[in-house]
Design brief:
- The protein is of the alpha/beta class and 259 residues long.
- It has a single domain, classed as 2-enoyl-CoA Hydratase, Chain A, domain 1, CATH 3.90.226.
- The chain is 45% helix and 15% strand.
- The chain contains eight helices and ten strands.
- The strands form three sheets. The protein has a six-stranded mixed sheet, with helices on both faces. Strands 3-5 form a two-stranded parallel ribbon. It has a two-stranded antiparallel ribbon with strand order 8-9.
- It is globular.
């Protein structure tokens, strides 16, 4: 029977085969993701439902077309605390819900991942097409604090000094650089990306069920702890700085209008 949630999220396409290998393909209107509020909301809730569905044995997370996530289309205001609270609420849960999926997750980065690349690189196994690039474009390059979990992920993957450099300079890594730095595990021609992901998924799906599930639990424990320690605080700092940046011209330091 097709799970109800397969049809619940307009920005995610789901497919599941007889072995329980679930493909989650992120998209916007069937094409590459144009990152907007609907994507953010869908990811937060869908990761929870995927994790709660015990018929899922392995998850493959990928994008659509020639990009993983590389374009903006944000469509909601962030001009006050109530606006930011929605992002804060979803942001605290989104990465935790992803990490709480208790089966192996394979990231298949099908092209540039310059927005929310952490969704893919948090996978247990991360594959990249040779056309992929990695960057944190939405934060420092746009004058925003990198506090939505990227501050945890990239320092953990790249090391403290390289991670801070990556975030503070808007550095872009090629697929080969990402491989050499340990961010991804394999680089493949684009046409070989999903076949290789399924090959690895079938290998993992053949493991005894509790071995497969509990291995994921054991291997994500450290990252969950780091997220619990730093994610909420980082989002609060990001929101505070964003609201300051968006203050109307002429507003004084106390929040009133200068005369």
């Amino acid at each position: 029977m097709r799970p109800v949630y397969f049809d619940r999220y307009p920005t995610i396409h789901f497919e599941r085969d007889a072995q329980g290998i679930l493909l989650m393909r992120l998209h916007t209107n069937g094409g590459p993701v144009v990152y907007a509020s609907q994507n953010h909301s869908d990811w937060c809730a869908a990761f929870y439902e995927v994790g709660a569905d015990r018929d899922n044995q392995v998850v493959i997370l990928t994008g659509t077309g020639d990009a993983f996530i590389n374009r903006f289309g944000w469509d909601k205001p962030n001009s006050g605390p109530a606006d930011w609270d929605v992002i804060y609420w979803e942001g605290r849960r989104m990465l935790r819900n992803l990490l709480d999926i208790e089966v192996p997750v394979i990231g298949a980065v099908n092209g540039p991942a310059t927005i929310h690349a952490e969704l893919a690189v948090l996978s247990d196994i991360t594959l990249a097409a040779s056309t992929a690039t990695f960057q944190d474009k939405p934060h420092i390059p746009f004058g925003t604090v990198p506090g939505d979990g990227v501050h945890v992920v990239w320092q953990e993957l790249l090391g403290i000094n390289r991670g801070r450099y990556f975030l503070l300079t808007g550095q872009k890594l090629s697929a080969q650089q990402a491989l050499e730095l340990g961010v991804v595990n394999e680089v493949l021609p684009p046409e070989q990306l999903l076949p290789r992901a399924y090959e690895l998924a079938r290998q993992l799906a053949a493991l005894p069920p509790l071995t497969r599930r509990y291995s994921r639990v054991a291997l994500t424990h450290r990252m969950k702890r780091l997220m619990d320690e730093a994610l909420g605080y980082g989002l609060a700092l990001e929101g505070l700085a964003a609201l300051d940046t968006l203050r109307p011209p002429g507003a004084n330091e106390s929040g009133g209008n200068s005369k």
